[in-house]
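Following up on my earlier thread - several people asked me to post the actual chain instead of describing it. Fair enough. Here it is, all 264 residues.
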Amino acid sequence: MNILIVGAAGNLGSHIARHLLKGPHRLTLLVHKTPLPQALANHPNVTVASGDLDDPASLHAATAGVNCVVYVAGVLFEPRPERFLHRTNTIYVQNIVDAALQAGVERFILISFPHIEENTTPDSPATGRQDVQPRSIHARTRLEAEKYLFSAYQNKSINPVVLRAGVIYGRDVKLIEAARKLLRYRLFAIWPTPTWVHLLALPDFLRSVEIAIERANLSGIYNICDDCPVMLQEFIDELAEHWGYRKPWRLPDGCFYLSASVCE
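Reply from S.P.:
Thanks for posting it. Predicted structure:
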């Protein structure tokens, strides 16, 4: 099977690529400005395709001859997300979905997240709904992308799959490594209000993507998370203890809104 990974130069995309290369698949890795890790670019089962998600015409060559698309691209940790997330979270997905349809791609896997349903708890868990109206711009724009994917593939012999993955943790995961650095230098602070978080171990995420690629007749929305929900504060405290650092500072909730407004 030839698999196109969109976002392969990113942190999670490169993890997916390395995992899939342990199997029999051939990979086409879409790159734009960020170069691939050298080990991936030089692998004999990898084809590097150049394309710009903002330029639909540039995507046709990348999708030619592809059996499955895995979309894990995104822009994170940038200020004023309302200025760009509609384009990067929704329009970019629409462009590659259209190219995949024209190329006859058999399966499209979109990596999303459970927080589209917002404020889910053990008593009110995520169920894979799309009839919701999330407040955050990140969730709204990804939901629009999900809906476009399913509408585009409606009544076609192609399987759209959405994997709503929890917060992924593990070795060499960018978010976790950033937390490690902040904890090391006592720069990590967190609010005291208890906050539920969906977590997902990196090996489980990679195996879920592999199953979504290989299992026949799979389609729909799948929430993938660890067995037990945890509080964000508890998780960060345990990370600090695991690495031998002090627990993060607790600051009033309002400090984080103030910091965000100053940064933006």
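The chain has one domain: 2-169+198-228. That should answer part of your original question.
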